[in-house]
Design brief:
The complex is a heterodimer of chains A (803) and B (284). Chain A has 803 residues and is an alpha+beta fold. Chain A has three domains: 191 residues, Aldehyde oxidase/xanthine dehydrogenase, a/b hammerhead (Aldehyde Oxidoreductase, domain 3, Alpha-Beta Complex); 327 residues, 2-Layer Sandwich (Aldehyde Oxidoreductase, domain 4); 147 residues, Aldehyde Oxidoreductase, domain 4. Chain A is built from 21 helices and 29 strands. Chain A has a seven-stranded mixed beta sheet, with helices on both faces. The longest helix of chain A is centred in the last third of the chain and has 28 residues. The radius of gyration of chain A is 28 Å and the shape is globular. The C terminus of chain A is likely disordered. Chain B has three domains: 46 residues, Uridine Diphospho-n-acetylenolpyruvylglucosamine Reductase, domain 2 (2-Layer Sandwich); 116 residues, Uridine Diphospho-n-acetylenolpyruvylglucosamine Reductase, domain 3 (2-Layer Sandwich); 103 residues, Enolase-like, domain 1. Chain B has 284 residues and is α+β, with helices and mostly antiparallel strands. Chain B is built from twelve helices and 14 strands. The chains are: A alpha+beta (803), B alpha+beta (284). At the A-B interface, helix 4, helix 9 and helix 21 of A face helix 12 of B. Bound molecules: flavin-adenine dinucleotide. The site of flavin-adenine dinucleotide has 29 residues of chain B, from strand 2, helix 6, helix 7, helix 8 and strand 10.
Chain lengths: 803, 284
C-alpha cells in the first residue's frame, strides 16, 4: 500500500492535530477552569516504610484559603482499593491498596493526606501545617534479600506476589550435552516515565453525576474501574481525556489521585483539580522495568541454539497496580525472539519492595526480553568467534518458514529478517566499520569503535481477548470504531482508542478518505470522551492501528454497503449492478453514472426516496477482536565510539530498518521511531531511578534523573522493509514501541563490542561514563598493560556439559 | 512546586537595592531566577522579600575599561556568548557560558547570579577563578573588590555580607600569546559538569610560559590546579608534556562523591581533562 496520486494511505501528511497543539489553543487537563474549582494537594510520605502513629490536621484546616483537609482515616470507608486487573496466577498475592494510606506507608511518595483549597498556593502552604508522626519500619529494597525468609515484610502476606512459569520442549535434554552453555545475569534498571505533560485530573460533580477530565491513556477502562472502586454507577460517570501530552504507559493506570479527586469532589459537592509537579510525579507515577534477569542458553558448536532458560525477579514495588504483575508476562513470549530452538523455560517471580509501584512502560516486558536475548546472542557470537549477525542468521526463522509457531507458542504470520538485515548492513556500511574497528583495536587506539546489533521482534496489537483470558487478564482486547455521515458529506469518526500524541486524527482520516472516497480534510476524528466515544479499550501496546484501525475499516465497509442500497435507488438500478470504483458507487459498465458517499449522504439526510425498509442513516459501527498479535521486526545497528580514557560513549551512527508492515503515514512512523529509539537509548545510557539505603528516591528531579535531549543523540538513518501483516485488512503491525524495544540492546551491545578487547562482557545500564571506565579498568590486568585482544577466559561461560 | 509567599520589589538603582536588602534580613536578591526559583519552588528557601535587580540598567552590559573588561552582574550567559569585547579579550567566558544548560536558561541566567549562587558544579566560578577576575561588590558601606578565592567560601556560600550585591566582574584582558579552553565533562548537554577544566596557557617559543587552571566540581568551591600550573609552566608545548603536567591536576582537591561520580573517578577525570584542556589552550 504505497502512496499513489489518489490514495491517502501512504502519504506523509503533516498532522491535523498539530495546529492546535503547537499554537497552545488546545485544552490540557490543567487548563480546565470551572466555576468554584478547588485545588487539591497531597501530602506524601517521606518514609519508604513506616507506621502512621498520628495525623494532626488542625492547623491546616484553619489555614487561610483551606476548604477541607483529609487523612486516610477520613476516607477509609469509601476509598476502596486500587485495582489490579491482571491476577496472573491463582495464588497471586494482591495486597489491599488504599489510595490514601491509613495505617502504613510502603513507599516514599505514598499519599497520607489531602488538602483542598481555593488555590494551589493555599493548598501547598497548608501541606506544611499537617503534622504526621511515623514509626519507621525497615525498608525492603533488594529483591533477592526480600525473598530471604528473615526479610522484613512489605505486606503481612510476605514479599512474594507470584511465580509464573512457561515451559515447552525438553530443556534438560537441550542443556545436557550442549557444547556451549552461556549464563548471564542482566539488570533492567528502574525507569521513570517522563511524559511531557505531567498527570492532572479535574472532577466536576453535578447532582449525582460526575465528569472527570484526566491526562490518561485509558478513559474507557478508567470509567469502568472508577465505577468498580467507588461504587458510583457507571452510567453516572463520564471520563474525558482531553489532549494528552504523552503517556508511554504511565497514564495506562487507575491512579490514587484520580480516585481521591473523585471522592473529594463527591464529598465537597464542588469541582476539584489536581496537577502534579515533576518532582512529585517522579516519586508517585508508576515506574517501569526493574528486573533481575538470569538467562542461560545452550547451543551447538556452530552456534545453533538448543535451549533457553530464563529466571526473572520482577520488582512490583509496594503494590500491584492495574497490570503490574502482567508486564513480565508480555516479555515471556518474546525471549525466544526471532530464533528457533527446541526447548524454552521461563520463570518469573514478582517481588514486593518498599518502592514506587511499577507497571507498563513503553514496550512493557518486551524491551526487557529483547535486551536479554540480544545481549546473550552477542555473548554467544563472541564466545564462538562468530560475527553477531552470523550467529543470528544461523538461528532465525527464514522468511520462507512463515507462518511459524515459536517455542513460546505464538504464531508469527510473516517476516523477513534476511531482507531487513541486509538493508541495514548496507546502510550502516557494516563491513567498512568492522574493518575500522579492527584497525583501531590493532593500534590500541584510545577511542575504540563498537558495533551493536539488535534484530528484534515484538508482539503488538494487544490483544486477542481469548489469549488475554487464558493469561487471566480481566478484560478483553477488542476495539471499536464508528462512522457518522453528516448531511454535507463530512465524516465524523469515533474511535475507541485514545490518542495521546500518536496522531490518530491524521492517520484515521487517511484511512477513511480511502475507504469512503472523501477528501482527507472532510474527516474529523473524535476520541477520548466516554460520552462521545462510548466504547473502547484505549491506547497502549501498539494496538491502536492494528486493532482500532481494523475496526475502522470494518465500520467503513458497513457504511459503503448501506450506501450502496441507497445509491442504487438514487440511480434506479439494482444494488448488485453497482461496483465501488474510484471512491464511489458506479454502475458496472457505465462508469459515468455514479454517486459519491457525499451525494448519498445528502440523499439519506433528505430521506425522500429511500427504498422500503431502508433506514435513513448511513452511520455504522464495528467492534473487532483480533485473532492474533502482530509481529513487527527489524534490524537496528548502532556504532559507538568509546573514549577508553574517560569512559565517554558517543553514538556515531544509528541505522534502523523496521518492518512494520504497511505504512499509513511515513511521517508519523518516523516520529514514533525517533522518539522510541531515543527512549531506548536513554535506558542504555542515561536513565535510572536510584534509591538511597533508607528507600528515598534520589532522582526525583530532572537535575538528577537524566533524560536526553536532541543534543545528545545522533541523526538516525531510518529505512523500512515492508512485509504486510496477513492478520488485518490494513496489513499493519504497529510501531509505537518498536524503537524503544530495539535500541537499548543495540547501544549496549555496541559498547560491550567496543570493550571486548579489554575483557569486558557487560556494562550495567545505564552505561554511564564512570561505569564504562570502571568496566575497562576492572577488566584490565594491571594499569598500563596492553589489553589482550583474544577472547579472555570467561568466568560465566561453561564450555560444555550440564551447567 | 509552589513557593511560599514573599514580597517583591524592583528597585531602579544599586543604592535602592542595597537599602531594600538592608531593611529585611530575610530578603534575597533575584537576578535571572534560574537557581533561586527552583529553590523557592522546592521550598528549600523562604525569603520574605525578593529584590529584583532586573530594573537596574547600570548592572547590564560589558564595558571596555582599559586593560580589563567590566562585565555587569546582569549580563546573561547568552550575552556572554555573543559579546564582541568578550570574544576578543575573554573568550574563555563565552565558551564556558555556551555550555550552560540550554538556550532558555542561558537567556535568563546571569553572570552575577551564577557567581553569587556559588555552586561548585557551576561553570563560571572556575572560569573567573582561572581568569583571575576581580569581583566588585556594593553594600551599605560602599564598594569593595574581592578575588575569586576570597569570594567563594564554601558549597553554595560566598563571603557576600548581608545587604551586599555583586555589581560587576572585572576580567583582565588576555594579552598576546594566551590561549584558552573550557573542557566540560557532562553526561548530557543540559546536565551540570561532572568535572570541568578552565585552562589558560601563554605560549612562547614552543613552550608554555604560563598556565592557569580552574577546576569545576572538584571541591566545595572552584579550585586552582596549582601543582599542574607549576608543572606546565616552562614545559614544552606538546601533548605529552601537557599530559604529564596534568597528572598533578587533582592535587589538593577534595572532589565530592555523588550520584554522578565517585571521587576517585573525578580525580582521574580532572587529570585527563586538564591534559586535554591545556593542550587546546596551548594550541597543540
Ligand atoms: C536546568 C538548569 C540547568 C543549569 N545548568 C547549569 C550548568 O550546566 N552550568 C552552570 O554554570 N549553571 C547552570 N545552571 C544555573 C544557571 O547558570 C543560573 O543562571 C545561575 O546559576 C544563576 O543565575 P541567575 O541570574 O539565574 O541567578 P538567580 O537564580 O536569580 O540567583 C541565584 C542566587 O544568587 C543570588 N544573586 C543573584 N544575583 C546576585 C547579585 N548580583 N548579587 C548578589 N547575589 C545575587 C540570589 O540571591 C540567589 O541566591 C542551570 C540552571 C538550570 C535551571
Amino acid at each position: 500500500m504505497t502512496a499513489t496520486a489518489d490514495h491517502e494511505v501512504g502519504r506523509a501528511r503533516t498532522r491535523k492535530e498539530d495546529a492546535r497543539l503547537v499554537t497552545g489553543q488546545t485544552s490540557w487537563t490543567d487548563n480546565i477552569m470551572l466555576p468554584g474549582l478547588a485545588q487539591v494537594a497531597f501530602l506524601r510520605s517521606p518514609h519508604a516504610h513506616a507506621r502512621i502513629t498520628s495525623v494532626n490536621l488542625d492547623a491546616a484546616r484553619t489555614a487561610p484559603g483551606v476548604i477541607a483537609v483529609f487523612a486516610g482515616a477520613d476516607v477509609a470507608a469509601e476509598q476502596g482499593s486500587l485495582p489490579c486487573a491482571w491476577p496472573v496466577t491463582e495464588d497471586i498475592v494482591i495486597p489491599n491498596h488504599p489510595p490514601m494510606a491509613v495505617e502504613t506507608v510502603r513507599y516514599a511518595g505514598e499519599i497520607v493526606a489531602a488538602v483542598v483549597a481555593r488555590d494551589r498556593y493555599a493548598a501547598a502552604d497548608a501541606l506544611e501545617l499537617i503534622d504526621v508522626e511515623y514509626e519507621p519500619l525497615p525498608p525492603v529494597l533488594d529483591m533477592p534479600a526480600a525473598l530471604e525468609p528473615g526479610s522484613p515484610k512489605v505486606h503481612a502476606e510476605g514479599n512474594k506476589s507470584y511465580t509464573w512459569s512457561l515451559a515447552n520442549g525438553d530443556l534438560d535434554a537441550a542443556f545436557a550435552d550442549a557444547p556451549v552453555v552461556i549464563e548471564r545475569t542482566y539488570r533492567q534498571q528502574r525507569l521513570i516515565p517522563e511524559a511531557m505533560e505531567p498527570r492532572a485530573v479535574v472532577v466536576a460533580p453535578v447532582a449525582d453525576e460526575f465528569t472527570m477530565w484526566s491526562s490518561t491513556q485509558i478513559p474507557h477502562v478508567l470509567k469502568v474501574m472508577l465505577a468498580l472502586v467507588t461504587g458510583i454507577p457507571e452510567h453516572k460517570l463520564r471520563v474525558i481525556a482531553p489532549d494528552v501530552g504523552g503517556g508511554f504507559g504511565s497514564k495506562l493506570q487507575v491512579t490514587a489521585e484520580e480516585v481521591l479527586a473523585l471522592i473529594l469532589a463527591r464529598r465537597l459537592g464542588r469541582p476539584v483539580k489536581w496537577t502534579e509537579s515533576r518532582t512529585e510525579g517522579n516519586a508517585a507515577v508508576h515506574h517501569g522495568r526493574d528486573q533481575i534477569q538470569k538467562i542461560r542458553i545452550a547451543a551447538d558448536a556452530d552456534g545453533t541454539l538448543r535451549g533457553l532458560d530464563v529466571d526473572l525477579l520482577a520488582d512490583m514495588g509496594a503494590y500491584l497496580m492495574i497490570v503490574t504483575p502482567g508486564v513480565p508476562l508480555l516479555g515471556a513470549f518474546m525471549f525466544n525472539a526471532i530464533y528457533k530452538m527446541a526447548a524454552y523455560r521461563f520463570n518469573c517471580t514478582g517481588v514486593f519492595t518498599t518502592k514506587t509501584p511499577t507497571d507498563a512502560y513503553r514496550g512493557a516486558g518486551r524491551p526487557e526480553a529483547t535486551y536479554a536475548i540480544e545481549h546473550i546472542m552477542d555473548d554467544l557470537a563472541f564466545h564462538l568467534g562468530l560475527d553477531p549477525l552470523e550467529v543470528r542468521e544461523r538461528n532465525w526463522i527464514k522468511h520462507e518458514e512463515f507462518p511459524y509457531t515459536t517455542i513460546s507458542g505464538l504464531t508469527y504470520d510473516t517476516g523477513n529478517y534476511e531482507a531487513a538485515t541486509a538493508l541495514a548492513k548496507d546502510l550502516f556500511q557494516y563491513e567498512e566499520l568492522r574493518k575500522e574497528q579492527s584497525e583501531r583495536n590493532a593500534a590500541s587506539a584510545q577511542v575504540r569503535l563498537g558495533l551493536g546489533v539488535s534484530t528484534y521482534t515484538e508482539m503488538c496489537g494487544l490483544a486477542p481477548s481469548r489469549v488475554l483470558g487464558s493469561l487471566r487478564y480481566a478484560a478483553g482486547g477488542w476495539e471499536h470504531a464508528a462512522i457518522r455521515m453528516l448531511p454535507t458529506g463530512m465524516v465524523e469518526v469515533i474511535t475507541g482508542s485514545s490518542a495521546h500524541g500518536q496522531g490518530h486524527e491524521t492517520a484515521w482520516s487517511q484511512i477513511v478518505a480511502d475507504e469512503l472516497g472523501v477528501p482527507f480534510e472532510d474527516v474529523r476524528v473524535l476520541h477520548g470522551d466516554t460520552a462521545i466515544s462510548h466504547k473502547g479499550m484505549d491506547t497502549y501496546g501498539s494496538r491502536s492501528l492494528v486493532v482500532g484501525g481494523t475496526a475502522l475499516v470494518s465500520a467503513c465497509g458497513k457504511v459503503r454497503e448501506k450506501a450502496r442500497v441507497i445509491a442504487a435507488a438514487m440511480m434506479e438500478v439494482a444494488p448488485t449492478d453497482l461496483e465501488w470504483a474510484d471512491g464511489r458507487w458506479a454502475v458496472r459498465g457505465d462508469p459515468d453514472q455514479g454517486k459519491t458517499i457525499g451525494e448519498i449522504a445528502f440523499a439519506t439526510f433528505a430521506a425522500h426516496d429511500l427504498p422500503d425498509g431502508v433506514e435513513p442513516s448511513l452511520d455504522c459501527d464495528a467492534t473487532i477482536d483480533p485473532d492474533n498479535f502482530s509481529y513487527p521486526h527489524g534490524t537496528h545497528l548502532c556504532a559507538v565510539e568509546v573514549d577508553t580514557e574517560t569512559g565517554w560513549v558517543k553514538i556515531r551512527s544509528y541505522v534502523a530498518v523496521d518492518d512494520i508492515g504497511n505504512v499509513i503515514n511515513p511521517l508519523i512512523v518516523d516520529g514514533q521511531l525517533h522518539g522510541g529509539i531515543v527512549q531506548g537509548i536513554a535506558q542504555a545510557l542515561f536513565e535510572e531511578a536510584a534509591y538511597d539505603d533508607s528507600g528515598n528516591l534520589v532522582t526525583a528531579s530532572l537535575a538528577d534523573y537524566l533524560i536526553p535531549s536532541a543534543a545528545d543523540v545522533p541523526s538516525f538513518t531510518l529505512a523500512r522493509t515492508q512485509t504486510p501483516s496477513t492478520l488485518n485488512p490494513l496489513g499493519v503491525k504497529g510501531v509505537g514501541e518498536a524503537g524503544t524495544i530495539a535500541s537499548t540492546p543495540a547501544v549496549v551491545n555496541a559498547i560491550v563490542d567496543a570493550l571486548r578487547p579489554f575483557g569486558v562482557t557487560d556494562v550495567a545500564m545505564p552505561c554511564t561514563p564512570e561505569r564504562v571506565w570502571r568496566a575497562i579498568n576492572n577488566a584490565l590486568p594491571s594499569p598500563g598493560e596492553t589489553p589482550p585482544l583474544q577472547p579472555p577466559a570467561q568466568n560465566q561461560v561453561d564450555g560444555g556439559g550440564a551447567a | 512546586m509552589i513557593p511560599a509567599s514573599f514580597d517583591y520589589t524592583r528597585p531602579g538603582s544599586v543604592e535602592a537595592a542595597v537599602e531594600a536588602l538592608a531593611a529585611d534580613e530575610e530578603a534575597k536578591v533575584i537576578a535571572g531566577g534560574q537557581s533561586l526559583l527552583p529553590l523557592l519552588r522546592l521550598r528549600f528557601a523562604y525569603p520574605t522579600l525578593l529584590v529584583d535587580l532586573g530594573g537596574i540598567s547600570e548592572l547590564r552590559g560589558v564595558r571596555d575599561a582599559g586593560d580589563a573588561l567590566e562585565i555587569g552582574a546582569l549580563t546573561t550567559h547568552y550575552e556572554l556568548t555573543r559579546d564582541p569585547l568578550i570574544a576578543a579579550h575573554a573568550g574563555l567566558l563565552a565558551q564556558a557560558a555556551g555550555t550552560i544548560a540550554d538556550p532558555a536558561v542561558r537567556h535568563r541566567g546571569t553572570i552575577g547570579g551564577a557567581l553569587s549562587h556559588a555552586d561548585p558544579a557551576g561553570d563560571l566560578p572556575a572560569v573567573v577563578t582561572a581568569l583571575e577576575a576581580v569581583l566588585v561588590v556594593t553594600g551599605p558601606g560602599g564598594s569593595r573588590e574581592v578575588s575569586p578565592a576570597g569570594f567563594f567560601a564554601d558549597y553554595l556560600t560566598t563571603t557576600l555580607a548581608p545587604g551586599e550585591i555583586l555589581t560587576s566582574v572585572r576580567v583582565p584582558k588576555l594579552g598576546d600569546g594566551w590561549g584558552y579552553h573550557y573542557e566540560k565533562f557532562h553526561p548530557t548537554a543540559q546536565a551540570w559538569a561532572i568535572v570541568g577544566v578552565a585552562a589558560l596557557a601563554r605560549r612562547s617559543n614552543g613552550h608554555v610560559a604560563e598556565a592557569r587552571i580552574g577546576l569545576t566540581n572538584m571541591g566545595s568551591t572552584p579550585v586552582r590546579a596549582g601543582a599542574a600550573e607549576a608543572a606546565a609552566a616552562g614545559a614544552e608545548a606538546s601533548a605529552a608534556a601537557m599530559r604529564a603536567a596534568a597528572q598533578r591536576a587533582d592535587e589538593g582537591t577534595s572532589p565530592p562523591s555523588d550520584l554522578r561520580a565517585a571521587a576517585d573517578y573525578r580525580r582521574h577525570l580532572a587529570r585527563v581533562l586538564t591534559g586535554r584542556a591545556l593542550a587546546r589552550a596551548a594550541g597543540i
